[in-house]
């Protein structure tokens, strides 16, 4: 057995309940939007602070005053190539270490000493 209780409300009570619910909804929306605006302001301020720190870090320091002009140093004498060397090698997109390995492998495959071979350039072939 169930007891059902019904309360009859008047038109004035219903309007009062609707007004209170509407006020609660409006205040809820206002609090949420105020929080969003406050969060946006904090993020904007932090972004400007970080941007100014980055700009200050990348900004070159003020140039120091130039000292009195010193006489130009004498050019270094040209060093002669080592005996048995065949000059310079032009490297295109190849590190020095890899170029040295390539030259050693070629000398080994040709069964000739490295100082008898002359490499003009080494270039990586990309596909």
Explain how this protein is built.
- There is one protein chain.
- The protein has two helices and two strands, in the order H-E-H-E.
- Helix 2 (96-110) links the parallel strand 1 (90-92) and strand 2.
- It is elongated.
- Among the domains are: 11-59; 90-123, no CATH class.
- With 127 residues, it is mainly α.
- The protein has helices at residues 11-58, 96-110; strands spanning 90-92, 121-123.
- The chain has a two-stranded parallel sheet with strand order 1-2.
- The chain is 50% helix and 5% strand.
What does the radius of gyration come to? Answer: 41 Å
Gross morphology is elongated
Our count of helices gives 2
SSE run: HEHE
Beta-strand content bin = under 5%
Summarize the structure in short.
The protein has helices at 11-58, 96-110, and strands at 90-92, 121-123. With 127 residues, it is mainly α.
Provide the descriptors you would attach to this structure in a database record.
single chain, 127 residues, mainly alpha, two-stranded parallel ribbon, 2 helices, elongated
